[in-house]
Write a structure and sequence with these properties.
heterodimer, A: mainly alpha, three-stranded antiparallel β-sheet, 5 helices, 3 strands, B: alpha/beta, elongated
Chain lengths: 131, 290
Amino acid sequence: MYLAFDPNSGVPVSAQLIEQIKYLVVSGQLTPGEMLPSVRGLAMQLHLNPTTVARVYRQLEAEEILYTQQGRGVFVRGNRSAYTIDEKRRRVRGLVRDLVVEAARIGLRFEEVQRMIEKEIQALKPEGDDE
Amino acid sequence: MNVVEAKNLARNFGTTRAVAGLDLQIPEGSMVGLLGENGSGKTTTIRLIMGMLVPSYGEVSVFGEDPLYMQPATRARIGYIADEMGLPDTMTLGDGMRLHASYFPTWDNAFAGRLLKRFDLYTGMHFGTLSKGQKRRYLLALIVAQRPEFLVLDEPAGGLDTVVRRQFLDLLIELANERALTVLISSHLLPDVERVVDRVAFVKAGRLVTQGALEDLKSNVKRLIFQSGDDVWRGRERFHVLKEDRGQGAIRLVVDNYSEEKAAGLFCTTEHLNLEELFLVYNGLQPGKA
């Protein structure tokens, strides 16, 4: 499991790691039942404070992406949809928001933005990307 | 459980109020960065915690005991390193180790040997012949090999180069991962501290401005940037604003209770703040008002 993070960024390190582990699960690079390093193991590997890694695992357990088996280790759960529908919406909503704010700032009409989005969707569709 | 508990702790030097009513908690197993400008009271706070100074008023306990009357067995659980520490110049590193070991029953001689090797030091060297960085590494090896439960580091990286600082921080992280360890570290090298600590306490003029988990601070404190004419007033209404400034056609609010839900529908962009920026924001506040 390769994880990269920037400890000197304003984004909490735990949030950076949670994001990446979720992505590894969604993209199938981490498979259901796969064992992850222990809290201390991963903290040592990443040269991080163990409380930060504990925070990451706790959050991912709460979101039912990982589970801990007492005495055995931390494992990836069976369901592959690490992103709930709410989360999928939330992630895209953030991008859309930035897009709309940016368009307004530089004075691009919203109808124009809608047309651009529609065009991108049409361009992607033949690739078979609908759910 | 808190390893350190300070309530309204204060110390005056003549008419100077070095520490002026400080409340500080250091939870067991945490690594706390004590951060403040020069002269903000960091070293005085640490000396009060170590029982090297008598408080003018207020109280502090370490492992539940008054540091001024601490049992030797409790003192032995604490590893302390400060800027002015050293050994006589003619003493060999081996003798220094034997001396230190005699005070601390938990001394781990094999570990001390491994640390010396790692830092390229030899027992036959005389303390006076070491460079500043070597001295610091040696002293760190001493207090770490003492296997303390609580490490107190007053500006441990001051005057050290990047390589040595990195060795130092890596060792801290390794120790914290090996066994339960509580650390208090004062430093003005914020990017270093940002790597290792999980909690921060910002001090200013001898008082606490804020303390908390670094990850929480980073999640909750954000800078919202509005263009003039945007709905700044709605930002002010929804959030608790720490700081507001304007310039270059933009109005910037630093808020400490940010959430994506609350920001929904606001006409602004959001910036994250790293430790250095967080420090600058909190250092600009009046203590006790955060």
